[in-house]
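Second opinion, please. Pick holes in both lines of this record:
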Amino acid sequence: MKYRLLAALCLSLHFTSFATVILQYHHVSDTTPASTSISPAQFAKHMQYLEDHNFKVIPLSKMVSAIKQQQALPDKSVVITFDDAYINILTHGKPILDKHGFPFTIFINPGIVEQTSSQYLSWQQLKSMAEDGVIIANHGMEHDSLARIPEGMTQQAWLAKNTTSLLAAENIIAEQTGQSWRYFAYPYGEYSPEVQQWIRDNDFVAFSQQSGAVGLTTDLTSIPRFPASQPYDQLSSLRDKIDSLPFNISLDEQNQRTIFQQGETTSVSFNIVVDDFNPEELHCYITGLGRQKVEWQGDEMFTINYSAPLPTGRVRCNCTAPSISEPGRFYWYSKPWFILNENRQWYPL
């Protein structure tokens, strides 16, 4: 038993030596929609907390490169991202970030930027920010969900159309800012295994909206980010997330599915390396259903049989467990689903 525990702790050091968290923001403003906003005062508190507690804020490119090369970064690294090119990122967010010398990334929609709305950054402002070290990345030409195939169109035709659109957006970003990272943030966080394969085929790295820490085993087609706008902007709840660790979890083909009709899926199974936590301390919660019973199949797989049908909409299963080797820190993983109604119709955006 002592040898097994020692071996587990040694193995855990390999995985916890790379623990990065990505924070996702939209607006930095007191006057924009609450669900996608954080006030400048609260955003300043977030950044001050990172500095006061010695978190290492790194560029997104450094994190992606480390995963690709399987080279661990310093523990407790943080990446800061914004979705959509809102003007208040420049007017309210950037001065706070510059005060601390923190790098950040903005995922933009070129088609929306080119509408020259006063709510959005202009190409001139984006180019100036790019020259100042800000990473400008791809959020799609417009803001269309890749998972929602229009009626009457095949998935193959839909993805072919989006290939043209995605590459056109990447080319425009390169022309206007001088940057082409081939990083893509899924609009609305919606994706499917077929979309993930499409991302691989087009040599992109993709970012989602389910929560969780990032590690060397993280799938580069669905890199998690913690939403940090309201109502998740309070430091009391954000502290554990910023300090979280990545589970070493994988899913087989059936459990990789993300899109179901309501009532179509009744359980999910996870393959996992149990290296630095006690299995009985693993807790999983599903949106709208609360805490779920975890059933272990040996040491390397657990299953959740849902306590009720998954509700329509964007649903998450968040699993956490306290670390043995690093008391006070939690492993964190989130599995997303996009549940259609009983008529197989999508929920409103």
Notes: The chain has nine helices and 20 strands. The domain at 20-243 is CATH 3.20.20.370 (TIM Barrel). Confidence is low (pLDDT under 50) at residues 1-17.
